[in-house]
């Protein structure tokens, strides 16, 4: 009996010694670190604003022919291509949906946008844009923080003057305007803008001298820079 207990005790001690020599600690997995999600800041464009622009307009050729009592008497005495410096003011309002920005704008422009020529008979002919008012819709997308790229589309009303020697005729033409622009915020209330606008007006009959008329079809492209101030 005593010898059996001794053998059992010896086996237990041997087993403990074997386990002590081959012990393997438990493997602890390191914690998984998740990088924080950083949201790109979106600029605040919503609200009312006013602004001013300075531009240079370049027109297309407007051929001038003479018609008397409905009969064409000279198909072309020359052509005008209005061009020149102009300034403008505008007011608008914008709504914003995430990065999309859209809203109406009312603008008024005027300046020295004209052209003239002298006919073979020595008569000076001049075409001049006196002013232009336009109602436009601007729709844009913020491509970078505080930078907006947008499209322009709307209707326009232009006041023109034609001179033929000592005679002149003022007329109004309706048309449309479209273009593209970019705007960069300087701070919360001020931003700089750059735009290219195409202005196309309907054909209008103009009386150069009593009984003699021509058909005016002015059009021009205006490149502008300016400032916006948000309320």
Automatic annotation (TrEMBL):
<dbReference type="InterPro" id="IPR051692">
    <property type="entry name" value="OMP-like"/>
</dbReference>
<keyword id="KW-0732">Signal</keyword>
<dbReference type="GO" id="GO:0016020">
    <property type="term" value="C:membrane"/>
</dbReference>
<feature type="domain" description="Outer membrane protein beta-barrel">
    <location>
        <begin position="19"/>
        <end position="231"/>
    </location>
</feature>
<dbReference type="InterPro" id="IPR011250">
    <property type="entry name" value="OMP/PagP_B-barrel"/>
</dbReference>
<comment type="similarity">
    <text>Belongs to the Omp25/RopB family.</text>
</comment>
<keyword id="KW-0472">Membrane</keyword>
<dbReference type="InterPro" id="IPR027385">
    <property type="entry name" value="Beta-barrel_OMP"/>
</dbReference>
<dbReference type="Pfam" id="PF13505">
    <property type="entry name" value="OMP_b-brl"/>
</dbReference>
<feature type="signal peptide">
    <location>
        <begin position="1"/>
        <end position="20"/>
    </location>
</feature>
<protein>
    <submittedName>
        <fullName>Porin family protein</fullName>
    </submittedName>
</protein>
């Amino acid at each position: 009996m005593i010898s059996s207990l001794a053998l059992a005790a010896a086996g237990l001690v041997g087993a403990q010694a074997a386990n002590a020599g081959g012990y393997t600690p438990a493997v602890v997995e390191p914690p998984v670190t998740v990088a924080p999600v950083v949201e790109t800041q979106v600029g605040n464009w919503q609200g009312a604003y006013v602004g001013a622009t300075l531009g240079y307009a370049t027109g297309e050729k407007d051929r001038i022919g003479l018609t008397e009592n409905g009969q064409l008497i000279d198909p072309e005495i020359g052509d005008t291509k209005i061009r020149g410096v102009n300034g403008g003011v505008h007011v608008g309002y914008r709504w914003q949906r995430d990065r999309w920005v859209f809203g109406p704008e009312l603008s008024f422009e005027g300046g020295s946008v004209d052209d003239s020529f002298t006919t073979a008979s020595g008569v000076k002919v001049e075409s001049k844009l006196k002013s232009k008012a336009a109602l436009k819709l601007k729709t844009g997308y913020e491509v970078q923080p505080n930078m907006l790229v947008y499209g322009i589309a709307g209707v326009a009303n232009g006041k023109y003057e034609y001179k033929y020697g000592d005679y002149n005729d003022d007329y109004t033409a309706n048309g449309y305007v479209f273009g593209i622009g970019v705007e960069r915020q300087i701070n919360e209330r001020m931003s700089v803008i750059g735009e290219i606008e195409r202005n196309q007006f309907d054909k209008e009959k103009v009386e150069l001298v009593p009984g003699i008329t021509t058909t005016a079809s002015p059009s021009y492209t205006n490149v502008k820079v300016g400032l916006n101030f948000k309320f």
